[in-house]
Amino acid sequence: TEPLLEISQFKLHFHTDKGVVKAVDGVDITVGEGEVVGLVGESGCGKSVTSLSVMGLVPQPPGKVAGGSIRLAGKDLTRLGRKEWRKVRGNEVSMIFQEPMTSLNPVFTIGNQMVEAIRQHRKLDKKEARRLAAETLREVGISREGILDEYPHQLSGGMRQRVMIAMAMVCRPKLLIADEPTTALDVTIQAQILDLMRRLNEETGTAILMITHDLGVVAEMCERVVVMYAGQVVEQADIQTLFRDPRHPYTQGLLKSIPKLDKRTDRLYSIPGNVPNPRSMPQGCRFAPRCEFAMDICREKEPGLFTLGENRVSRCWLEEEKKEDADRGTTTVH
Ligand code: SF4
Ligand code: MG
């Protein structure tokens, strides 16, 4: 059966005065019904543009779909018109962002905003919508009297994020996209919000695409992980496999940069160098300028995705080497 979300060879380019920026450059990602999938990478690797594309929120122009498709429950989202988008966004797919204040309108009460969001998709009168709003807020752990008549600035950051989650979930979307939902929150609140999202996933069956630079968050939440670098998928694996045996040097670098609670280190590891300028991608492997294993072929030819098993790929020439070694029946010791 078809997955709930199927992004196939999707390309999203920006046309600017200084040239074409290939922000998303041929990406394949799937999310099954009820599944929680992590999309990780440093900022500027294309994960946010990918997720905004699933929401139809990339302004076109300057953005332009340059190839591929995004199918949600069988519908190609890249072909939806304005009117159709209004039915899909907030209803079949919703999104929450990092900074709650940017998505809650400061001049309207929580109740007004929620009622508004509900009535866009459900034929309910204001009273019924208000009741549904209160009920959904209770589901996300907010039961305080009078909350519906409060304004966003009267709430803490953690509460605002709960309200955002309630608003995103109120129409029971099939897919929730969460872009760095806990990054701005302190550690305790962060854990509570992740708990909440996990519980909602279990109780409602809403699938989650979790966008984050933090593999720690992914470990808490996700069944499967997709790693993006420079507009492409570079590795994909289920969560245990990825942590036990990361294959792509970029993934290995990301894993090394997770802070360890049990170890006191003065300085956290970070991958040397920066993500490449998308207007002038390096020749060959896009990660080569930062890769400690780079070989001659890496600087000449771009690696494709090597399939390493079910739902397991890596975009790295080292896999070719390993394959040849295996074919020759030798083992290489590094
Ligand atoms: Fe490193 Fe080469 Fe693999 Fe790129 S293809 S990640 S440069 S080893
Ligand atoms: Mg981002």
Automatic annotation (TrEMBL):
ABC transporter domain boundaries: 7-255
Pfam families: ABC_tran, oligo_HPY
Organism annotation: Melghirimyces profundicolus
Family, as annotated: Belongs to the ABC transporter superfamily.
Cited InterPro entries: AAA+_ATPase (IPR003593), ABC_Ni/Peptide_Import (IPR050388), ABC_transporter-like_ATP-bd (IPR003439), ABC_transporter-like_CS (IPR017871), Oligopep_ABC_C (IPR013563), P-loop_NTPase (IPR027417)
Record's bilayer topology term: Peripheral membrane protein
Molecular functions per Gene Ontology: ATP binding; ATP hydrolysis activity
SUPFAM superfamilies found in the cross-reference section: P-loop containing nucleoside triphosphate hydrolases
Keywords carried by this UniProt record: ATP-binding, Cell membrane, Membrane, Nucleotide-binding, Transport
BP term (GO), one: peptide transport
Keyword Methyltransferase attached: no
PANTHER family: DIPEPTIDE TRANSPORT ATP-BINDING PROTEIN DPPD, OLIGOPEPTIDE TRANSPORT ATP-BINDING PROTEIN APPD
Localization annotation: Cell membrane
Gene3D superfamilies named among the record's database cross-references: P-loop containing nucleotide triphosphate hydrolases
Domain of life per record: Bacteria
This protein's GO CC annotations: plasma membrane
UniProt name for this protein: Peptide/nickel transport system ATP-binding protein
